[in-house]
Amino acid sequence: MFFRSVAVQIRSCLKQSGSIITFLILLAFVLQNFILNVQTYQGDDVLSMVHPMKLLVLNEFGGYLNIEMFSVLLQVYPLLLPLPAVIPYAKERQTGESILLAARIGGMRYAFSRLLSVLVTTFIIFTVPFLIEIGLNCISFPLEAQGDPLGIGIYDPKYPEMVRRYLFSGLYIRSPYLYAVVETLFWGLCSAIFAAFSAAFVAVFRFKFTVFYLLPVYLFLNATTLLSAKVAGTTAWYYYVLPYNERLKNPAYLWVLPILLLIAVLATARGGRRDCIG
Amino acid sequence: MVLQAKHVTKSIRGRTVLSDVNLRLESGTVYGFVGRNGSGKTMLFRALSGLISVSSGEVDLDGKVLRRDFDVLPNLGITLETTGLFPSYTGVENLAYLAGIRNRIGMSEIRRAIQRVGLDPEDRRTYRKYSMGMKQRLALAQAVMERPDIIMLDEPTNGLDEDGVDMIRQLILEEKERGAMVLVASHNKEDIQILADQVYRISAGVVSPREEAAL
Amino acid sequence: MHRLRSDLLYTLAFGILSGALSAFLFVRPMYDVTYLPELVLQLSGSRGVFALVGGISEIMNMYMRFAPSILFEIYAGTVMYRSFCTASVYVFTRNPNRAKWYRREACRVLLLSALFTTVSLLVAVLLSAVRHEVIPNVPGAILLLYHFILYSIWTFTVTILINVLSIRLGSYNATLAAAVLQAVCIALLGLVRLSDQPVFAVLTRVSPISHLVLGWFRSAIPAVEEAIPPVTREGFWGFSFPTSLLVVSVYCLAVVLSGRQLVLHHDILSGNAELDGG
C-alpha cells in the first residue's frame, strides 16, 4: 500500500498545474536555446562548430544569448523547485486532505510516501526537458564537432586542465555524450534533494501562506551564492550542480546533498509522528 | 469485530481533552455521541482512529493495540469537521485520488458512492465551487465508498437540507445493515435518537453512556 | 494597530539584513577609503569604480543585490492579500468602500517599502563607515537620494504586484510571476554589451531594472556627472534621473491602477483565497 500511495501521489503531482507550468518553463528555456543555436550555427563548417553537448542550456556558455537566459534560469530555479510537488503537499496539509490520506495508510507512511513522491516528481520534471535537448542537439548538430564555446581548442594546453576540473571529468573524457546525460540526471537528482529539503519544512511547520515554503531552499541556495562572493568562488550551488563548470571545487561540498537529504528524512519522521489534528 | 478504548486519556498542552474514556464498540451497531461544541467528540474520533496518540490508556481492535500493532484502524472511513478535499479537482477526481491509495475499488464504485450521497458524478465543477452541503456530501461519499468495516462520521448532517439529512440517515442505516460499525457524533439530538442503537454523552472529555436509544 | 506594529518590526528586520549584506558583500573600496558616490554606485551594480557591463557574474551580483528585497517583498506581498485569506466576507462587509480600503492599504505598503529602503541604505552606509573610511560629499548625498527614491518606488511596485496577483493566483504563483518578471529584467542588463544593436538597446532601456543602475546615469548637475565614471560602450548613451524616475513611476502607476481595478471587481466567493486560488 505504501508504494501504491507513492505512485498515486506522483501521478497526482504530475497532473497538477504547478508541474505543468514548471515543465513548460524549463522546456521554454531549452527550446529558446536550441533555436538560437540552430540559427547561429546554421551553415557553419563542422571544423568550426562547437561540440553539440556544449551547446546545452545548462552550460553557462551554451549559446548566443545564453548568458542572459542562464542567469534567468539561475534566478528562478529556487522558486521553481517547490512548485511541482512541495506546494501540492503544503496545500494538502492546509485543506486537511492529508488527514484523510493518513487515515488510510497511517501518519508515518503518509509522510514518507509524500517525501518519496516529492523526490521522484521533482526529478522527472527537472530532468526530462534537458534530456530532450540532448536528443535535439544530437539530431541537429554534427556529432563530429569538437569546438568549445570559450574558444579553447582541444590541443590548447589549457584544455586538459579545464576538463580535469569538471565534475565526473573521467566520464567526459570517455564520452561527452554520456557525460551530458549523467550530468543532466545529476542535476535532476540535486533538484529532487533540494525540493525534499523544502518538503521537510512542510512536514514540520505550518505557514498560512504557501509562498513561505519556498524560503528554506531559496535562502539556502542564495546563501551559497552570497558566500561565494566572500569565499573564493567555491560555494555557489551552480558550480557543483551544473555541467562544464571548470571552477575550483571544494570536496567538502559533496557532503551537502546527503546532509540535506538526512534533514529531510529526520524532519519527515518527526512530522509523521505528530498528531493529525488539522 | 470489537473496538475497545481502555482508560484513554489525552492531554494537549496541559489541557485534558479526553479523560479516562472506556468504550466497547461492536460491528453492526450505530453508536451516537452527543455533546456540546468543544466537548471532545472530534478528539475522541481522532483517538479511536489512530490519528492522534493518547497520553495514557490504549485503543485496541480485536486485541491488537492501535499505534503499537498498527498506525491507524484498518479499513476505516472517516469524516471530520476540519478536513477538506483538493480545491482544483472535481468530486470524482478527489475520490479517485483517495481510492487509489488502497486500490480496492474502481471508477464504478466511486460513481455509485457519489450518486448515493445525492451528487452527480458527471458534474465537472471543481471542489472549490461546491456549496457547503455539497462538500459535506462528498466527504461522506469518500468515507463510505470503500465499504469500510468502521465508519466515523463527525457532524454528518451539518449544512445539509432536509432531503440531504434523510439521505444520510438512510445511508447510515444501510451501512449498519451491511455489518459496519458506525460512530456518529452530533449535537443534533434528533439524528442520534433516530439512528443510534447506543448513545454516549461527552462532556469536557468525559464519556458516559446514556440510556439506549429506541430503534 | 498590532498588525501595523508587527509589519514595521519585520520591515525593520529585513532592512537591517539587506543593509548588512550590501555592506559586507558589495562595498569594496580600494585602499579602504571610499567616497560616498562610489559607495552608492556599488550598491546599485558597480564594481569598485567600474560600471556594470553585463557579464554573467555581474548579472548574478545584481540579482544578489535584490535577493534581500525579495524576502521583504514576499512578506509584504501578504499585507493586502491577507484580508482576502481569512474572513474576507467579514472584512469587506465592514469596508463598503473598497477603493478607499485599497488606497489605505497601498499607502501602508508604500510606507513599508520606503522604510525598508531607508533602513537598508542607512545600515549599509553606517556599516561601511565602520569598516572603511567613507568620505561624504554633496554628489554622494544626491546619488543616495536618487537611490532611495528609485528603489523605494520599484520595491513598492513589486510588492503591490505580488499582493494583487495573489488574489487571483495564490501567494506562491503570484510571487513566482513577479520574480520571473524581475529576473528577466535583471537578465536584460546583460544586453548592454550588445547595445550597439538597436533592438537590444531598446530592450535595455525598456527594462525597469536598467533604470536602477546608477552607474549608467548621466547628470545635468556637473558635480554628480563628474562623480559617475563613464561607461565606455559603443552606442551606449546612458540614462538620467528624471527619465529613470519617469519610467519607474509609469510602471508603478500601471501596477497600482490595474491592482485597483482587480480589487474593485473581485467577487468574494470564498473565505480563503489562499486555499482556493492557484
How would you explain this protein's 3D organization?
- The complex is a heterotrimer of chains A (278), B (215) and C (278).
- Chain A is built from twelve helices and no strands.
- With 278 residues, chain A is mainly α.
- Chain A has one domain (2-273).
- Chain A is elongated, with a radius of gyration of 20 Å.
- Chain A starts with a helix and ends in a 5-residue tail after the last helix.
- Chain B has 215 residues and is of the alpha/beta class.
- Chain B has two domains: 1-75 and 151-215, Rossmann fold; 77-147, no CATH class.
- Chain B has six helices and ten strands; from the N terminus they run βββαβββαααβαβαββ.
- In chain B, the strands form two sheets. A six-stranded mixed β-sheet of chain B has the order 6-7-8-3-9-10, with helices on both faces. Chain B has a four-stranded antiparallel β-sheet with strand order 2-1-4-5, covered by helices on one side.
- In chain B, strand 7, helix 5 and strand 8 form a beta-alpha-beta unit.
- In chain B, helix 2 crosses helix 3 and helix 3 crosses helix 4.
- Chain B starts with a strand and ends in a 6-residue tail after the last strand.
- Chain C has 278 residues and is mostly helical.
- In chain C, strands 1-2 form a two-stranded parallel ribbon.
- Classes of the chains: A mainly alpha (278), B alpha/beta (215), C mainly alpha (278).
Helix/strand-derived class of chain B?
A: alpha/beta
CATH superfamily membership of the largest domain in chain B? P-loop containing nucleotide triphosphate hydrolases
Oligomeric composition of the shown chains? heterotrimer
How far apart lie the N and C ends of chain C? 30 Å
Shape verdict of chain B:
globular
How many DSSP helices of chain B?
Answer: 6
Largest sheet of chain C: 2 strands, parallel
Q: Could you tell me the strand content of chain C as a percent range?
A: under 5%
**Total E-strand runs of chain C:** 2
Sheet of most strands of chain B: 6 strands, mixed
General shape of chain C: globular
Q: Write down how many β-strands of chain B occur, each being a DSSP E stretch of 2 or more residues.
A: 10
Q: Which stretches of chain B are low in confidence, meaning pLDDT under 50 for 5 or more residues running?
A: none
Distinct helical segment count of chain C: 11
What's the CATH topology label of the largest domain in chain B? Rossmann fold
Strand order of the largest sheet of chain B: 6-7-8-3-9-10
Q: Mean pLDDT of chain C, as a whole number? A: 85
Identify the CATH architecture of the largest domain in chain B. 3-Layer(aba) Sandwich
User: How large is the radius of gyration of chain B?
Assistant: 17 Å
> What structural class do you assign from the helix and strand content of chain C?
mainly alpha
Number of domains of chain B: 2
